[in-house]
Structures are given as structure tokens and as C-alpha cells.
Design a protein that fits this description.
globular; 2 domains; eight-stranded mixed sheet; 10 helices; about 35% helix; binds acetyl coenzyme *A; Peroxisomal Thiolase, Chain A, domain 1; 12 strands; alpha/beta
Length: about 325
């Protein structure tokens, strides 16, 4: 692919204040900090207050990203909220978020492909920009998985958290999209699913909660993330040793370590923050990206690989040459 000039001009975070530690969970579940830390790397997660919804943290993230970017909200042409936990099915959460942020000239859509959502939204934003339909796109990934977690199921309850991250993408350099890849294997969907929904109602409340075959997802995850990254890097014509930083989906430290081994990259080049937040689904990559930027781990000219997987089962990856202007 010919490198395509697109620049991430701003990043933002939207994190709920409430922290739930592994020890907190062990008070009501048959689990313990040792099991959770050893099997997943997670030590705590954020949980949104009951009287708030996804839009609350999506707006926080979007506001910070817009402020950092210096882009006038009225110059945002599209707002995408990637999520599996919208406030409501109508309106799209993106409509509420765009209105609250003053993006009055912006189209608005929610995009649901679970944990791969931010990557799909990022690629969609780049396509809109490349086609000339949009100059600036606000991409938000966020989820409130606490709302769709069965808190009595220790196999899933210990894994998930709430949070949102955002990016403002603008046409033109100095940044570049170098490669991308995404896909889904619907025939594997039963490994990670919610069996009831608006057009498939159920009398059983747990059918509205996340069900997961952890081992099946684990097997899928590493291969999907690594294979997708290889395709993106091949498109970018970039060898792995030229990657400065990988921002992977934050589901399980063992999955990330296994992927790093397959990439042949040291863990210093791989972002990990799941110890603090658990798995935040579509929020996980933009939160990790925004934190990495704040920590000074991303510099202009760096080659950044974003890679993830999720319900679907789905996957995605993006290779960027970083050209942040802020
Ligand atoms: N605390 C204590 N014990 C537990 C817990 C818990 N929270 N959960 C399960 N166990 C027990 C099981 O009951 C089982 O006991 P048994 O041997 O007596 O039957 C034992 O621990 C081992 O259970 P496994 O499920 O085999 O544990 P495993 O090593 O596979 O780890 C885990 C489970 C952490 C879920 C792992 O499979 C995993 O991370 N899978 C991928 C999950 C993932 O990435 N999900 C999200 C993907 S997409 C998205 O982001 C939404």
C-alpha cells in the first residue's frame, strides 16, 4: 500500500473513578488475588457509577482528545463510537457524544465489533478521510463491560472493566497509515457471546450477560493478533524490528506475552496496562495508546503497531508512522 497521510492529532482518556481490586471481588466470589493475577495479570479494574452510562466516559475521552488536537469541534465531520455497550440502542451513543462535545457538523455512528471495535473504527475513519468525505474524524472506543458481566460467574467477572479512549484523526501528514488488516470468523462466535438481544429476547437475565469459553478464546487470540499484524506489516513493508511500540488489546497478560514471543519483540516494546484496568473491550487500545503518549513512549517518526481481537470472533491491526502534531 502507498503510505497514506493521516495524523493522530489528539488523544484522550475517560476513566471511571471507582476502582475494584481483586481482593474486593474475592469478598463476593469464590476467587482470589493470586489466581486472578497469575492467570491474567489483572490486579484491579474501573467500574462506572450506576447512575452514569457509556456516553459519560466517552465524552470525557473525546473532550480531552479534541482539546489536545486543537481541532474546532465544528470541523469534525464524523464521530464514531466503537462499543458493545451503548447507552441505548437509539439514539446511537455517538449522537449524544457529538452533541455534548459541540461537534454540530458531524455525522455520528456507533460501531459494534466488540474488543476489535477501536481498530475497525480507526480503519473506517482512515477510509473516510482517504475518500475525501471527511477531513477530521473523532474516533472513540469505550465500553462498560460491568453492565454485561454476570457478577456471579467467576470465569468472566474477574476479567472485565469500564473505560474509554479517543483519538482525533486528520487528513494530511506528518503521520501516515502504512498498513491495516481486519476480519472476523462468525462460525467461532459461540466462544464469546451474549445470546439475547433486542431482536432475540430471552426470559433468562443471564442470557444478556457475556458468556465465554476462555480456553477457545485464548487459543484464537494469540494467533489472530500475530497473523493480522504480519499482514499489516507486510502491507507496510515494515520488518518487525522497525516497530517502536506495540499497543495490543489488553485481555490477558499471558496472551500478550505469548504474542510478543511470536513477534520476537521484547516486552519493553509492548504496552501493558491491564493490571490497572482489566479488559475494557473497545476502550482498551485507545486507553493504552493515550497513556503511552502521556508517558513519552511515542515520539514523532515512531512506527506504532496496534493489534487486537475480540467477539465475533474478530481481529484487527494497524501500522502507523506517528506524526502527532501536539
Ligand atoms: N478464580 C479462581 N478459580 C477460577 C476462576 C477464578 N476467577 N475462574 C476459573 N477458575 C477455576 C476453574 O473453575 C478451573 O477449576 P477446575 O480445574 O477445578 O475445573 C480452573 O480455575 C482452571 O480454569 P480454566 O478456565 O482452565 O483457566 P485458564 O487457565 O484457561 O484461565 C482464563 C482462564 C483466564 C479466562 C483464560 O482462559 C483466558 O484468559 N482466556 C482468554 C480470555 C479473553 O481473552 N477474553 C476476552 C477476549 S475478547 C474480549 O476482549 C471481550
Amino acid at each position: 500500500m502507498t503510505p497514506f497521510p493521516v495524523t493522530v492529532r489528539g488523544l484522550g482518556l475517560g476513566l471511571p473513578a471507582g476502582v475494584v481490586t481483586n481482593d474486593d471481588l474475592a469478598k463476593t466470589l469464590d476467587t482470589n488475588d493470586e489466581w486472578i493475577s497469575a492467570r491474567t495479570g489483572i490486579r484491579s479494574r474501573r467500574v462506572l457509577e450506576d447512575d452514569k452510562a457509556l456516553s459519560h466516559i466517552a465524552i470525557l475521552a473525546g473532550k480531552e482528545a479534541l482539546e489536545e488536537s486543537g481541532v474546532d469541534p465544528n470541523d469534525i465531520h464524523l464521530t464514531i463510537v466503537a462499543t458493545v455497550t451503548p447507552d441505548t440502542f437509539m439514539p446511537a451513543t455517538a449522537c449524544r457524544v457529538a452533541a455534548a462535545l459541540g461537534c454540530h457538523q458531524s455525522g455520528a455512528l456507533d460501531l459494534n465489533i466488540a474488543c476489535s471495535g477501536f481498530l475497525y473504527a480507526f480503519i473506517t475513519a482512515c477510509a473516510q478521510i482517504k475518500s475525501g468525505l471527511a477531513q477530521n474524524v473523532l474516533v472513540i472506543g469505550g465500553d462498560t463491560l460491568s453492565r454485561i458481566t454476570n457478577w456471579e460467574d467467576r470465569r468472566t467477572a474477574v476479567l472485565f472493566g469500564d473505560g474509554a479512549g479517543a483519538a482525533v484523526l486528520s487528513a494530511g501528514g506528518p503521520g501516515e497509515l502504512l498498513g491495516y488488516d481486519y476480519g472476523a470468523k462468525g462460525h467461532l462466535s459461540e466462544a464469546l457471546q451474549i445470546t439475547a438481544g433486542p431482536s432475540r429476547p430471552s426470559d433468562n437475565p443471564t442470557d444478556y450477560k457475556t458468556q465465554m469459553d476462555g480456553r477457545a478464546v485464548f487459543r484464537f487470540a494469540t494467533a489472530a493478533m500475530v497473523d493480522s499484524s504480519r499482514r499489516s506489516l507486510a502491507m507496510a513493508q515494515l520488518p518487525l524490528d522497525k516497530v517502536d511500540l506495540v499497543v495490543p488489546h489488553q485481555a490477558n497478560l499471558r496472551i500478550i506475552e505469548s504474542a510478543a514471543k511470536k513477534w520476537g519483540l521484547p516486552m519493553e516494546k509492548v504496552c501493558v496496562n491491564l493490571d490497572k484496568y482489566g479488559n475494557v473491550s473497545a476502550g482498551s487500545i485507545p486507553i493504552a495508546l493515550a497513556e503511552a503518549k502521556k508517558e513519552g513512549r511515542i515520539k514523532p517518526g515512531h512506527h506504532i503497531l496496534l493489534a487486537g481481537f475480540g467477539g465475533g470472533l474478530s481481529w484487527g491491526s494497524v501500522v502507523l508512522k506517528w506524526g502527532n502534531l501536539c
